[in-house]
C-alpha cells in the first residue's frame, strides 16, 4: 500500500516559512521603531542645542536692550518732570532749578569720540580725540564743532557717538555737511528714542544772564557748569578785516572735550555751542557760537542734503 508523505512535509515547510516571515516582520518593525526613536532623539538634541545657542545669542542682547530701555525710561521721566518744573518756575536760575535744567538737557547732549590714523617712519598709530555734540532733531541730527571731527587739517578716520543712556553708536554715522570757517558740522546717526534739544534765541540773551554749559570735558560725560553771559558779539576778523566769526563770551567753566557741547539758557533752550577758551586752560573766559549763526548754517546744510541727497564738503 502506497502512502504519500509529501503533503505532511509541505505543511511543515509552509509553517516554518510563515514563522520566518513573521519573525522578519517583527524584526523589521523593531528596527523601524528603533530608527524612529533615534531620529526623534537626534531631532530633540538638535532642537535643544539650537535653543541653547539662541539663548546664548539673544539673552545678552535682550538684557542690554532692557538696560538701555530702563535708562531711557528713567531719563524720559526726569525730563518730563523737569519740563513741568521749569514751566512753573521761569524765574532766574538757582541751585534747585539748575538740577532740573540739567535733567532736561542731558539726554540731548552726546559724547563724540574720534580716532585718526597717523603714519610715520615707525609705522601707524592711532590718535584719539574727545568732544561733545547736541541732538537737534529726533531723527538723529547732531550739531558739533567742525574742529572736533577734523585733525590737523583733515577729517578724522573714525567717529563714535556715546548717548546719555549708555548706547554707543559706531556704525552708520554720516557727515551731512560742515562749514569749516564757522566751525560747525552736522552728523547723523541711526538710533531710536532720541531726545532733541529745543532751539533758543541767542539774540534775546542779556549780558549777565545765567547760562549752563553741558558737555564731556576730558571724557567726563555730562559735566554741568554754571556761569553768566559776560559779553556778546565778540568778533573775529579775517586778514581782510571782515568778520569771520562771532562769539558769546561766558564765564562758565569749559575745558578740552566741551567743544561742540550745549550752552543753554534758564529754560534749557540751546543758545550756543561751546567752542573755545582763552588760553590753554580755563581762566574764566569761554566762547560759544551763538545759536543764531549755528542754526543758519544747520538749515543751509540740511537744505543742501535734502536737495542733493549728499553732504557738503
User: Are there runs of 5+ residues with pLDDT below 50, and where?
Assistant: none
Report strand %: 25-35%
> Which topology of the largest domain does CATH recognise?
Thrombin, subunit H
In whole angstroms, the N-to-C terminal distance is 123 Å
Biggest sheet strand order reads 7-6-1-2-3-9-8
In total, how many domains does the architecture comprise? 3
Task: Describe the overall structure.
The protein has 313 residues and is an alpha+beta fold. It has three domains: 1-88; 107-195, Thrombin, subunit H, CATH 2.40.10; 202-297, Trypsin-like serine proteases (Thrombin, subunit H). The chain is 36% helix and 31% strand. The protein has three helices and 15 strands. The protein has helices at 6-88, 95-105, 291-308, and strands spanning 109-120, 123-137, 141-144, 150-151, 154-155, 158-162, 168-169, 174-179, 184-188, 210-215, 223-237, 243-250, 262-264, 270-277, 286-290. The strands form three sheets. Strands 7-6-1-2-3-9-8 form a seven-stranded antiparallel β-sheet, with helices on one face. It has a six-stranded antiparallel barrel with strand order 10-11-12-15-14-13. The protein has a two-stranded antiparallel ribbon with strand order 4-5. A hairpin with a 2-residue loop joins β1 (109-120) and β2. α1 (6-88) packs antiparallel against α2 (95-105). It is elongated, with a radius of gyration of 35 Å. The chain starts with 5 loop residues before the first helix and ends in a 5-residue tail after the last helix. The model has no long low-confidence stretch (mean pLDDT 82).
How are the SSEs placed, and which strands pair?
Layout: H1 6-88, H2 95-105, E1 109-120, E2 123-137, E3 141-144, E4 150-151, E5 154-155, E6 158-162, E7 168-169, E8 174-179, E9 184-188, E10 210-215, E11 223-237, E12 243-250, E13 262-264, E14 270-277, E15 286-290, H3 291-308
Antiparallel strand pairs: 1-2, 1-6, 2-3, 3-9, 4-5, 6-7, 8-9, 10-11, 10-13, 11-12, 12-15, 13-14, 14-15
